Amino acid sequence: MKRRDFLQKSIYSAGALAASSQTGQSASSNPSEKRYLATNRDSDSTQPNILFIMTDQQRYDGVGVNGNPLIQTPNLDRLAGQSANFTHTFVQSPVCTPSRACYFTGRYAHAHRNRVNYTLLPRDEKLLPAYLRESGYQTGMVGKLHLYYDFPFNAAEAARTGGFDIVELHDGVHSTDQWSDYVIWRNQRDPQKDIYYRDLAVDVPNAKQSANPFRVAIDARYTDTAWVGERSRNHIQTMAAQNRPFFLFSSFWKPHSPHEVPEPYDSLYNDIDIPLPKIETLEDIRRLPLPVQKMILRGNNPPYDMDRERLQWIYRSYYADITHIDHEVGEILKTLDETGQADNTIVIFCSDHGDQLLEHGLMGKNVFFEASVRVPFMIRYPGTIKPAVHDCFLETVDVLPTLFEMAGLAEPYNCQGRSFVPLLTGEGDYTEREVAFCENIIPEVFGKDRIVFEKGKGVDGIRHPDAKMVRSKHWKYNYYPEGFAELYDLENDPLEQRNVADDPAFRSVADEMKGRILDWLITSNETDQIAHTWLV
């Protein structure tokens, strides 16, 4: 869709809002909801609002409509039906901080150089909300940001430097609670504020018990999931009443581990036996590349042979946490309707990476298996984006240029993603990606208190920890320096159980995929490496 078409569409939406306010009608049939209707938006406003909802560590199959008949996600299923829902969206790094930086810069991790958690984002990397703020947007965030410009970490100031005017942070671990707005909010409201928000009922005296050993001791109203929902709704109501478009980043910590879950969600899946991944033996793990082995076997008690009943409860709690999020997403979208902004708001729902949930013997992420790198992604913009299911490849670096085109803004010169607006609107030419790329510094989670990389020596016996992935519809190839590689035939081995990288019968495939990685590394950084103009 051409830019002028977006502008015309936005003008029409703004005019419809003005007309509805003059007639005393809102998007809701409930008269009590009219007080939230925004009437201050200029009638010639041409830029859509953007509501960007992100979860942490949610797998692609963690949404019912994405092929999971057991999980309860009615609001996300409804949103997907109103959206372009992508079945093959791949993050560019399977770990929080680098992945979020890819979303917000439109650049690959090797380009923006923020490669592992709790490391610094270079100050010359400009984030999505900073561009939007400069173009007149109100910008706000609630929840987990996990991007830092300074050390020691000044998280709130980093968020403001990154372009957010409204900042309410909660990075979700005890060591970051010193700057958590959620902790302040909860301390002001929860009668049980002295109980740590992740404490389990089984470990708290006099707490109500549950069949689910992961039931959290605090009330659902005071969880960080409920907090993100409440504060997001509050900011939508406030920002919608202004005469400028808004960008709101609503970022949930869950379903990230630990897997505590509040009542009544703790019992939702009690009677359901969720299929578990196959048991991985130590022999199975030893066949993987050395960096992956080290990560799976990190710590004193690696969980690859975890008790199956405990694992079943982890899956039930993981599903329950997603259902809790689903409820909050539904309430957020309801507020968007009540404020009269639903038709003029781009809504994105996605996750920063997935979770292995003991597939291949690993809890967490940081690997290139599908459970870690493939995430849900849906985008809604009524009247502009055609609801559909798309099975083509999407990279998360593509999100920023897409939003810029839909907002009528010039794409940043150093952006490495590419807009998929023609695919969303059904107008114009769009060439689908043949492959998707991902990369990671593997020893990031080896379990040491302080990870130190020594020049010329590496980390914990890994000379060079940087690893790269390229995935086509048929093949996945993972390259690790020092002679390690994985090649999986996804058509015949979708669970990635048989590594054929060293099989002579597949040498040509491995060579081709390795060549694709080389080409990508050379060409993706062209704006960083090649001068824009020559002097003579």
Distance between the termini: 39 Å
Percentage of helical residues? Answer: 25-40%
- How many strands? 12
Global shape: globular
What Rg do the Cα atoms give?
Answer: 23 Å
> H/E order of the elements?
HEHEHHHEHEHHEHHHEHEEHHEEEEHH
Largest sheet entry: 8 strands, mixed
Instruction: Give the neighbour order of strands across the main sheet.
Output: 4-3-5-1-6-7-2-8
Supply the number of helical segments.
16
Beta fraction of the residues?
A: 5-15%
Main structural class: alpha/beta
The residue ranges in which pLDDT falls below 50 over 5 or more consecutive positions are 7-44
Mean pLDDT: 89
Write the layout of secondary structure elements.
Layout: H1 3-22, E1 49-55, H2 74-81, E2 84-90, H3 96-105, H4 109-112, H5 128-134, E3 138-143, H6 155-161, E4 166-169, H7 181-187, H8 224-240, E5 246-251, H9 282-286, H10 290-296, H11 308-338, E6 345-351, H12 370-373, E7 374-380, E8 388-395, H13 399-406, H14 421-425, E9 436-441, E10 466-471, E11 475-480, E12 484-489, H15 507-523, H16 526-529
Parallel strand pairs: 1-5, 1-6, 2-8, 3-4, 3-5
Antiparallel strand pairs: 2-7, 6-7, 9-10, 10-11, 11-12
Helix pairs in contact: 8-11
